[in-house]
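Most newcomers find our protein records easier to grasp once they have seen one. Nothing more is needed to start thinking about how sequence determines fold. Here is such a record, shown just as it appears in the course material:
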Amino acid sequence: MASSIVFYDIPSTLPINAWSPNTWKTRYALNFKGLSYRTEWIEYPDIEALCKKIGAPHTRNKPDGRPHYTLPVIHDLSTGSDLLLTSISLTHPSRRNCRRDAALALTPAIGLFVIPSVPRILNPASLEYFHITRGALFGKKLDEVIPTGDAYGPAWQKLKDSFGKIDSWIRANGEESTYIMGDTICYADLFIAAYVLWFKLVLPEKWDEAKTWHEGRWEKLLENTAKYEAVL
């Protein structure tokens, strides 16, 4: 019997297909909770029409005031409703009590390197949309965003320092701690893993260095969360 939960995600040219950190946060959570679901792939230009069709709310407003629709979206066909992660937690009891930690310190530094490189893994249907919207975000063409020359070293160090901050949160529980809460994985770890996996998938050549940082913590994190990477 097909699952009543439909998870909408953005496709790519990668073998695993899934790549977006925002949707990986939710996919990790679904798999972590052991929920049955199926994925439907939606290219960027089709997201707004999908959300309007199923009644999913917009996430914010565009500068001109129009609603802006984004993924992930989880739709429960049995109720006809759009689900948020919080409602999933209420409807489907978790195997563990997890809390989401503020990992946002990582996103600006990692985005500076990864976002401009995302077009290399997108399907043609999403390329123009991504270039226009992300170019507007940075105020320049994406190929002008990645630090070069004298700007590269400081930007790369800032990224390493951002990972280092998260490493310090984990070490606060003890030098041998594996996760944010010590030895028990929680949603904060999955949240962080989503961005680490994004980095690895989009910039494998940079990942070769980053995976060695902080005694290989980030490679170990992905090894520990690999069991939750199923794309159903």
Notes: Residues 84-102 have pLDDT under 50 and may be disordered.
